[in-house]
Amino acid sequence: MTVPVITVDGPGGSGKGTISRMVAQRLGWHMLDSGALYRLVALGALRHGLDLKDEAELADYARQLDADFRPGTSADAEPATLLEGEDVSLELRTETCGNDASRVAALPAVRAALLDRQRAWRDAPGLVADGRDMGTVVFPDAELKIFLTASVEERARRRYKQLKEKGIDGSLAGLLNEIAERDRRDSQRAVAPLVPADDAVVIDTSDLGIGEVVARVGQLCRERLGQEFVEGVG
Length: 234
Ligand code: C5P
What we know:
The chain has 234 residues and is α/β, with parallel strands linked by helices. 49% of the residues lie in helices and 15% in strands. The chain has helices at residues 16-27, 34-47, 55-64, 89-92, 95-104, 108-119, 134-138, 152-165, 172-188, 210-225, and strands spanning 5-9, 30-33, 67-70, 80-83, 86-87, 127-131, 144-149, 201-204. The strands form two sheets. The chain has a five-stranded parallel β-sheet with strand order 2-6-1-7-8. It has a three-stranded antiparallel β-sheet with strand order 3-4-5. Helix 2 packs across helix 5. The two termini are 30 Å apart. It binds cytidine-5'-monophosphate (C5P).
């Protein structure tokens, strides 16, 4: 029997990360944050003095990437992400790192180098996979595919709030520009561009609260997978 997968794709700030984590917790499933892998490759490569345009070198580094994820300490808390044994969770979330990640993610050899590692996350009882190409490339046979969107203004506002809560500086106007630029790069790249899978359920979260989106996904899990959310989690 194949292990079931729910893919949650969409642009940055659409709520993918938060929603994926909450859904995974409510189902008692594993969660793959594929964006963190691209961020780790970018961060690690820069620390090792690699050129972010050198595709072959970056792909080699991605294949050998020494990454580890430790569960968060409270319900709905983000896991700690380790690069070569060091907790880099905070550095990983900066806009600079996100932009560098989006550059290395445009390189086909880097994407290919991370493919098996991502698929290895498919483990019983199930996986919620968060990213850009989870439903189109990495898990095309996923049982349920969700694509979250939101207006660029709303996504910039959310990102601004998130960064502020983490004590990271940023201006709303600057974020808006960076998000629009990253959207452009992610949607227009030749390999695995950011597009909904043909069979994805598209949810616009611009005017929805997190609880409403989670409830909608819960309903889809019930209808499509016969899976019920565990009560009282988070
Ligand atoms: O989701 P997150 O913002 O952490 O992703 C950082 C960057 O990594 C994205 O802008 C995108 O370019 C890239 N990415 C990707 N494919 C994925 C996940 C992330 O190309 N599955």
